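batch job 7 of whatever, protein = Zinc finger protein 81
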Amino acid sequence: MHTHREEKFHVCEVCKRSFSQKTRLNMHMLIHTGEKPHVCEVCNQSFRQKCNLSKHMLIHTEEKPYECEVCSKSFRHKDNLNKHMHIHTGEKLLTCEVCNKSFRLRDNLNSHMRLHTGEKPYVCQVCKKSFTQKCNLNNHLRIHTGEKPHVCEVCKKSFTQKCNLNNHLRIHTGEKPHVCVVCNKSFYLKGHLNEHMLIHTGEKHHMCGVCNKSFRQKNHLSKHVCIRREDRACV
């Protein structure tokens, strides 16, 4: 059976790509000219296509027209709703060939694969430290810029990362979500609970390289080393 292919008479003079409609060629030409005729009246950000401006405007209006029928959570964009729906369906179509872990999104699988390959494509231009994910590089860059965008509304202390702000807020709320299963003592931070658990297990990971004495906490080892240095200085 013969099928009729759509004829494409309108050819881009720059890259020779062809289009069936003049309007599509005109839209394509904006890529080469760099022109962005559709401008946001609120923040002056410009776009090549009107549909992209319309999507952008939802940021300012805070409108979220796409609502999940299961949990009523709403989204600005249809594709974000589609991604969200996988949470309810449990659908995970993309599987890691190394460890068989599955993912809903291709980007998540790609990020995961770097754990196996060791690839770190995101490189800090200041100190050349590299990262597996772009978000980790962005967080790292704040060390160099000094930027601390996450501010505590109670005491105005600022932090480079949101997770550090969340941990700090527990000082004000008194929340201690990390509980020891042995003695029920609770802690603000998971790291503090981990240190506490060494009391029950008896583990001492930090060892002095001179006398082989071991300690539960690294700061205790540091104090021990300082005392040894002072003793040697007195001899």
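notes: The first strand starts at residue 10 and ends at 11.
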